[in-house]
Amino acid sequence: MLAVPGMTPLLAVSLLARAAITADAMALTMYVVLALDMSYAAAGAVVAALTAGVALGGPLLGRMIDRRGLRTVLSATVVPQFVFWLTVPVLPYVALLGASFAAGLLMVPIQAVTRQAIAAMTTEEQRRAAFALESVTGEVSYIVGPTLVILCAAQVSPGVVAWGVGAAIVAGGAGIALLDPPLRAEDEAGAGGEAGVQAAGRPRRREWLRAPMVAVLTMGFGVAMLLSGIDLAIVATLREAGQVSWAALVVAVFGVTSVVGGLVYGALPWPMPTWLLLGLLGLVTIPAGLAHDWPWLCAAVVGAGLLTAPTLSMVSGEVSRLAPAGARGEATGLQSSAASAGFALGAPVVGTAIDASVPASGFVAAGLIGLLAALTGYLLSRRSPAAPSPPSSSGAPGRTRQVSVRNPTSR
């Protein structure tokens, strides 16, 4: 995959920006708690405002990419990000709350652009491996981003950390603008950079937002809820055992095994249905509740970790495959919104289950959410045949979290 022209610089710039986007919630949390000396609830409100903005802005920015082109949208998002992160250390809390929502609304759409470009740059035979590799970069950003923010915050002020996160987001957006990757395959209408996007015909939403696409978006929402729930269940389990300091290690094991799972799955010669991968992910999550200390919990999350990146990659692939070229930006934006909503709702739902019972019920609730989403996706996808998709560079259409500590915008 790295030998595909343009793929290596695209993934490298994407990794830089996604690591920063993954860490933006942590950076804001530490700024509110440490610099403003306010509660975690106040910090959570700022992060919620950012997440709500991301969820609402994803489809709008995707639609703008379809209509106006990549560089126009990047210009409209990079500048606000620069202003927001530059002013974070001087904003009072109420202003920060509103500014965070605006920053989320205009978050640089790195994920959506990367996925669109991958669909345009690869053949049908390459796409599963390419999207698996894209999911692996998402997992690496999830491991690296928040960790660096926490380490840096211990050495410098939270305001400086916020500047660093903002600088990385701006650099990633500027880098993508310089690369200007194709968002349409060569044989799709209006192939090539910005002019191609503007020339591409735009189909009506009802032509592609049908049961199969709704099924995939539902499964993307479900896997985000599941992953958010797993994060919370890990912390709750170790807190009850008096071992909460080991949570970072358990989460790291989870992330590393997801990277391994993505690499292995991308190399396999045959795909698995998205609903089956998600169902298996839900099933292997439930028994993790039997672990009561950190060594056993490290072992218990391996199964879920191995299935995480493959499931995310299949969701990404199906969204790109079902979306026609002229609406691919909006479709990937909807996927990002579904993931953001899933991550926002997953923790409260699983937290309610934990409060009503024991920490182990968090893993059960997260697993059942995955199983329910898989079943719903399966039933919806069986309701009607997928709408005919436009040809891609391979003669078939192509194929995405956000986020978190697992920040929604990272996958």
Overview of the structural elements:
With 411 residues, this protein is mainly α. It folds into 2 domains: 7-204, MFS general substrate transporter like domains (Growth Hormone, Chain: A, Up-down Bundle); 206-410, MFS general substrate transporter like domains (Growth Hormone, Chain: A, Up-down Bundle). Helices cover 75% and strands 0% of the residues. The protein has 16 helices and no strands. The protein has helices at residues 7-35, 40-68, 70-87, 93-105, 110-121, 124-153, 158-179, 194-199, 205-208, 211-240, 247-267, 274-285, 294-300, 302-322, 328-356, 360-383. Helix 5 (110-121) crosses helix 15 (328-356) and helix 12 packs antiparallel against helix 14. The protein is globular. Residues 1-19 form the signal peptide.
Primary descriptors:
411 residues; Growth Hormone, Chain: A; globular
Topology of this protein?
Blueprint: H1 7-35, H2 40-68, H3 70-87, H4 93-105, H5 110-121, H6 124-153, H7 158-179, H8 194-199, H9 205-208, H10 211-240, H11 247-267, H12 274-285, H13 294-300, H14 302-322, H15 328-356, H16 360-383
Helix pairs in contact: 1-2, 1-5, 1-6, 1-7, 2-3, 2-4, 2-15, 3-7, 5-6, 5-15, 6-11, 6-14, 10-12, 10-14, 10-15, 10-16, 11-13, 11-14, 12-14, 12-16, 15-16
